[in-house]
Predict the 3D structure of the following.
Amino acid sequence: MEEKRLIKLEYLSILELNGKGSFELLQGQITSDMEKVSERNCALGAICDVKGRTIGSFVTAINAERDDSYHLIGDKKVLELTMAVLEKYQPFYDTKMSIEDQYQFFGIKNDLLKDMFPKSNLDKSFEDNGLFSRVHYLEKEFHIVYSTNPKLFEAFEVSLDESAWKQDEILNLNYEITSEASNKFTPHELGYHLTSRIDFEKGCYTGQEIVARMHYRAKNLPNIIIKTTDKEVKPLSKVFDDNQKSIGLVLMSSAKEGKNLCLLSMNKNYKEQEIIFSN
């Protein structure tokens, strides 16, 4: 049964930071507040350039196997871009960084997690039980479980179809930036102000002043909406009104019941009018 399957998330990897300066480096560069990352909590995060454009996004968690160690969990190509940025500041901090490819990642539904691992504490958004780690964010139906032990989840039926995972992301307005989208959008254009990915109460980080100015002074913030269409759509393709004026673009989509469920970023021209998808 589909409800008993794990979804293998092959695109995910880990950027690991080790050393006593890791906390300070991340606190000064990413949008999430590292003070909120703990043995029981993970945090959505992103990293921006000096113009407030989003370079990468990820989930930030501790590495339970080492002291002063953190994991950024995200798309491997995006993590490589993130690492290149952090390496510029690395000489000023006691930290070492590496992409760790030995982990396997799976999406597991909430009910299956409770059934198969009844000792899981779902009040925690991060949990490590010694065999695998788990992160959960927003109100998603799926959790991410990950481990370096390739045999740990052999008893499960595993699917490579990420459709249900993507639909869960869309329904929670969560867009993880891709390498193709890196440096092209402000956090607000990706809805990051809606999903706690930007912590507006923390101190400075690269691009923070521009991001905060947009958040508090802009008259109209970008809209993030969900729509369905019969058409096949490509990521970052434009959508139009009936006068062929561009009013936004597709961030991501997933096939569902013969249609495509889409997460859209709408620009200032969008006034809740009818949306026409590109051919």
